Amino acid sequence: MHLYTRYILTAIAVSFCGPLEAETNWRLVWSDEFDYTGLPDSSRWSYDVGGHGWGNGEEQFYTRERTQNARVEDGVLTIEARREYKEGRPYTSARLVTKGKGDWTYGRFEVRARLPSGRGTWPAIWMLASHNTYGQNYWPDNGEIDIMEHVGYDPDVVHATIHTLAFNHTMGTQRGAQLRVPKAREAFHTYSVEWTPEEIRGYVDTTHYYTFKNQRLSNRQANFRQWPFDRPFHLILNLAVGGMWGGAQGIDHAIWPQKMEVDYVRVYEVDDGTAVESQSWGQVKVDER
């Protein structure tokens, strides 16, 4: 979730065909089907914990291993934000990450979810670089891929965005798109990106509504500023409360608790051997601005 503005291993081959692309075969390499009960599977998920605002002025404290905020039951992962004080913050919630347990370079990343409702809710399905490889600052130098964001004061409108050193909100250059999704808060929809060496494509269900292309600039410095997306990234699922974007029109304090429900998370690779999971990388010194 950007600052301010914004299966288990198996060898199944499947196909996704969006309106603008030819058929691509994908191989499932990682997933959580949430076919168990209790806390999220610790072999797949860890927690980001804290209440420092997360760079966005958010109101929640993210907890660890607390079923009131993150639990699996009836085949669904629930991330729940609650109005209660903890560590000086007026709300609690959860932020789940796959870092160190699921890190990938390229692939199709697919999450089927039902979104919360009401002013002040800010759910996100997104990805960050797993290591600080590029530039001087972790963000935005190493990039961010937002698969889905939704702010409660603008109901049923979802956003896909990328952030890099060249393209981010602090300069008014962020690259993204939005799509109205009827009943996004009442029904499950599939939010996904397809990330290749050439481009990042955003989808809701089978609708392709966003593309960000790799310009492949000849100057290495200039290219990393636009495309740091050639190193491992990990997945993040969270539900924030308020913040500079989520709380831009205030927080309705009467709506809580609110929850984002997730039916499954699936990661695929192109079934031709060209896109492989990576968990090793070298430092690239490209600190010039």
Task: Describe, in plain words, how this protein is organized in 3D.
The chain has 289 residues and is mainly β. It has one domain (25-265): Jelly Rolls, CATH 2.60.120. It contains one helix and 19 strands. Strands 1, 2, 4, 5, 6, 7, 10, 15, 16, 17 and 19 form an eleven-stranded mixed sheet that branches. A hairpin with a 2-residue loop joins strand 6 (76-86) and strand 7 (89-93). The longest helix is centred in the last third of the chain and has 7 residues, at 220-226. The two termini are 24 Å apart.
In short:
With 289 residues, the protein is mainly β. The chain is 2% helix and 42% strand. The longest helix is centred in the C-terminal third of the chain and has 7 residues, at 220-226.
Q: What's the alpha carbon Rg, rounded to whole Å?
A: 18 Å
- Percent strand: 35-45%
For the sheet with most strands, the description reads: 11 strands, mixed
How many strands? 19
The separation of the N and C termini measures 24 Å
Protein structure class: mainly beta
**CATH arch. level architecture:** Sandwich
Q: Output the CATH topology.
A: Jelly Rolls
Order of helices and strands: EEEEEEEEEEEEEEEEEHEE
> Which descriptor suits the 3D outline?
globular
CATH class: Mainly Beta
Discrete helix count: 1
Uncertain ranges: 2-20, 275-289
What is the number of domains? 1
* Helix content estimate: under 10%
On the 0-100 scale, what is the average pLDDT? 88
**Oligomer, anyone?**
single chain
